[in-house]
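User: Hi! I have a protein structure encoded as tokens and I'd like to know what sequence might fold into it. I'm fairly new to this, so please keep things simple.
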């Protein structure tokens, strides 16, 4: 059976371990929060980039369509 002093030492060691784990959890929470923020920013940027690409592709498609129409008009004459 462990002595009272041994139990006190173990309790103190467990308390130190618990404090260390709490501090580590706090650091991990901050890191996760930062990563979530960065991920949200990247997703937003990706959505904006895709929207810009769609706009550019639509404009290019319209321009190519107009050029084809002009070429047909020129060659039909």
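Assistant: Happy to help. Inverse folding works backwards from shape to sequence: for each of the 77 positions I chose a residue that suits the local structure. Here it is:
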């Amino acid at each position: 059976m462990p002595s009272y002093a041994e139990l006190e030492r173990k309790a103190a060691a467990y308390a130190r371990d618990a404090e260390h784990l709490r501090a580590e959890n706090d650091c991990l929470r901050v890191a996760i929060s930062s990563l979530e923020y960065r991920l949200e920013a990247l997703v937003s940027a990706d959505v904006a980039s895709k929207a810009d690409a769609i706009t550019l592709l639509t404009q290019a498609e319209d321009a190519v369509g107009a050029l084809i129409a002009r070429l047909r008009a020129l060659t039909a004459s």
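A useful reference point when you look it over: Residues 54 and 60 are 10 Å apart (CA to CA). Feel free to ask if any position seems puzzling.
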